Every structure is written in C-alpha cells, then in structure tokens.
From TrEMBL:
Alphabetic keyword roster: Amino-acid biosynthesis, Aminotransferase, Branched-chain amino acid biosynthesis, Pyridoxal phosphate, Transferase
GO cellular component, one term: mitochondrion
Protein name: Branched-chain-amino-acid aminotransferase
Pfam family, one: Aminotran_4
Classification lineage: Eukaryota, Metazoa, Ecdysozoa, Nematoda, Chromadorea
One Gene Ontology biological process: L-valine biosynthetic process
InterPro entries hit by this protein: Aminotrans_IV (IPR001544), Aminotrans_IV_CS (IPR018300), Aminotransferase-like (IPR036038), B_amino_transII (IPR005786), BCAT-like_C (IPR043132), BCAT-like_N (IPR043131), BCAT_family (IPR033939)
Length: 295
C-alpha cells in the first residue's frame, strides 16, 4: 500500500484496513501466527510519522509501504510457524507514468498458469510471484510488457501481470458494462484498487457493473463486433494500466495472433476517470467514505 502527502500537507494511508484484513487472511492460510490488524496499522503509522520526511512533497509521488510477515522458528522442517517477524519496508516512489499513460502489450498463452482452484492465488503470498518471473521474461522476448493470465480449457481471463483486470464493453444485450473476474473462483487476488474501482462504479450508477468469468473467445467476439471499448489492469503501483494489444497464442493453430485493444481511443475514457478520481482521493482533493487514514 501507499501513504500520500495531501495538498493540505497531511499524510494519509490509502485503505490500510483492507490491506491488513487481506494480510490476516493470508497469514491464516500460510499457517503463520495471527496478529492484530489495528495494532499493525498503528505501528506503520508510527514509522511513517517518524520518517515523514521520506513522504514526497509532491502530488505525483508517494511512499510505498510493504508490510511483511515471515516465520522465524529455528528449524529446517516444514510445518506451521509458532514464531514470526512482522516488518515493514518503505520507500518513496514517483509517478508510474511520468509522461502520461503508456498502453501495454500482453502475452496471452494458456500453456502458462498463475493460479488454480484449491491453491493460493487469492492470497498475497510470495509463492504466487516467483513462478511468474520466467513467464514474464518470455513475454518480453515477444515485445510484450505483461502476461495476461488464463485458466482452463475455455481460457478464462484471471489477472494481468500482478494486477487485476477490467473490461469495459457493450454486452450482447446492448448495455454498457464494466466486468472484472469474480473472487469466488479462488483464482483472483482481492485487490484493494480492484475493490475501489468497483465501489466507485457502483456509486456513479451510470453503467452495469458485473463480477463474472470472462473468456478469450468472448473477448475476440466483442473485438470483432467492435463492442469492446477498454481493457485495463488495476493495482497499487499505477492505479490503472491501459492495455493496447494482446498477443494471443491460438492453441488450435499454434500461432500467435495480434489483437488490437482500443483502450486509449475510447472517449470519454472510463479508465482515465477512474485514475483521476482515485488520485484526487489519495491526495486529499476530495473525500470518499473512510478510505484515507490520517497519520
């Protein structure tokens, strides 16, 4: 998560309660000792208050915060942890897109899998990240910046890189609709930014908002019928990341196909609106519910 120095010079964390609730669920799944979420937030606030000069005095930068929990039992055996260390890494970070949004190209290849039912894809664990690095390097070899993770024979879309994925289109019933894969599958990380975008969209009440499975054949059909307006990732680092192209491995022909995604051409642009709204909340230009916790 991140802390921001607002336009009033006050420092605030963005939705730390939701971050810590997810960390508690992850700790339980990893058989790590439980901890008090509110106490953890207070500890992080104390650290940030002590090192507040590291929080950039800029509305394009922030302080990145990475709370970590590891088992520390003095043993080489595999088993549940009875002792653990909770620590926090912080560091100032600049604007993700310094010169404006840069659409990314995605490698979509169902021969690679990020998560599976019964696994830990819905938890914030290091073991979900290490296996993806090699696939990311394969994507780079094909001039792609990220991987669009697929699952199953129907090539269900799950995530993009380390972000949640959103699609804005006109569905087959003629309704403008924002779609993101559901958490119920156990394949999706419950991202804080993901939840924030869904909450904002529901608050606006201007288009249909749906959490449901979405497959590559559905994406292809929508593109051919010119019903797909935008596709973008959502995460802490960049808030939103536009998709401009998918390099899709057609398993039937064993050929890579290039699909153009018109995200940046859509006007008015929903992704841009999400970004500006979230940024305004984070830097104190506006408020929304109790998302910001003052240090």
């Amino acid at each position: 998560m991140k802390a921001y120095r607002g336009i009033d010079n006050k420092i605030r964390m963005f939705r730390p309660d939701m971050n810590m609730a997810r960390m508690k669920r992850t700790a339980k799944r990893a058989a790590l000792p439980d901890f008090d979420a509110e106490e953890a937030i207070r500890c992080m606030a104390d650290v940030i208050r002590l090192d507040q000069e590291w929080v950039p005095r800029s509305t394009t930068s922030s302080l990145y915060i990475r709370p970590t929990l590891i088992g520390t039992d003095p043993t080489l055996g595999v088993g549940d942890a009875h002792a653990a260390k909770f620590y926090v890494l912080t560091g100032p970070v600049g604007q993700y897109y310094a010169t404006g949004f840069q659409p990314v190209s995605l490698l979509a290849d169902s021969r690679y899998c990020r998560a599976f039912p019964g696994g830990v894809g819905s938890f914030k664990m290091g073991c979900n990240y290490a296996p993806t690095i090699w696939v990311g390097k394969e994507a780079v070899k094909r001039d792609c910046q990220q991987v669009l993770w697929l699952y199953g024979n129907n090539e269900e879309i799950t995530e993009v890189g380390t972000m949640n994925i959103f699609v804005y289109w006109k569905n087959e019933q003629g309704e403008n609709e924002l779609i993101t894969p559901p958490l119920s599958s156990g394949l999706i990380l419950p991202g804080v930014t993901r939840d924030s975008l869904l909450e904002l969209a529901k608050e606006w009440n201007e288009f249909k908002v749906t959490e449901k499975a979405l497959t590559m054949p559905e994406i292809e059909k929508a593109l051919k019928e010119k019903r797909l307006f935008e596709m973008f990732g959502a995460g802490t680092a960049c808030v939103v990341s536009p998709v401009g192209k998918i390099l899709y491995h057609n398993k039937a022909t064993d050929v890579y196909e290039e699909w153009k995604i018109p995200t940046m051409k859509n006007n008015p642009n929903l992704m841009q609106r999400f970004y500006e709204t979230i940024i305004d909340i984070q830097y104190g230009r506006t408020t929304f519910r109790d998302w910001m916790r003052e240090i």
